Amino acid sequence: MKKIAFVTAGGSGDRMHKDTPKQFLELQGIPVIIRTLLRFEQSSDIDVIIVVCLHGWVDKLKSMAESYGISKLEAVVEGGINSQESISNGIEYLLSKGYGFDDIVLVHESVRPFISEKIISDNIDTCINKGNAVTVIRGNESYLYSEDGISSEKHFLRESMFMVQTPQTFRLGQIRKAINEAQKKGIVSQSLYILMSQLKYTPLYMVDGDRFNIKLTYPEDLRIFEMLMSIR
Fold this sequence. Notes:
Elements lengths: L2 E7 L16 E2 L2 E2 H10 L6 E6 L4 H10 L5 E6 L4 H14 L7 E6 L7 H14 L1 E7 L4 E3 L8 E3 L5 E10 H14 L6 H7 L7 E3 L10 H13 L1
Helix pairs in contact: 3-5
């Protein structure tokens, strides 16, 4: 049974308002995606790394990974038009190379470079023992639900709300089965855990994340990242 770090890097990062995709922006001189890959490279729990990458950046990433000694990187596969298609491309690549349905796949966003060894190991252990794992942190605010963004008639208490991070971890065969089913039903989901929930591949078992396991999304996040680097 192989443990595979499946890193998604297919986004263009339009919300960053920069010419360079956000995963390739530098954080204290090192690209964000390289910092993420190094976390998996250094993890004793991970056997192999695969990246699904934005069109036009595949060769650049291969060169960068080689220069930083990412020896576990087996392949950089071109992504699709959305996250679901990108994951499908990567899964089909793994199957074509002989990986098995029982192998463990940790799907992780390239723009979360502060993933910890504990999150990695807890995801693997939970997936092995319970069938899947989704990284979450407990909500620290209460929430209003609104369909129009103007008014609300429903609320959720923070005690029952959890914010989803990555990795989201499943057996390779289960991901393949879910994507095939989604294609037949015309379902497209923005995240793997949402797809699994829509298709009733539940329950989803939650693993404690980390409030430092943040995602680079907006320009101000770069400042937060720099601050985190300075205190670590």
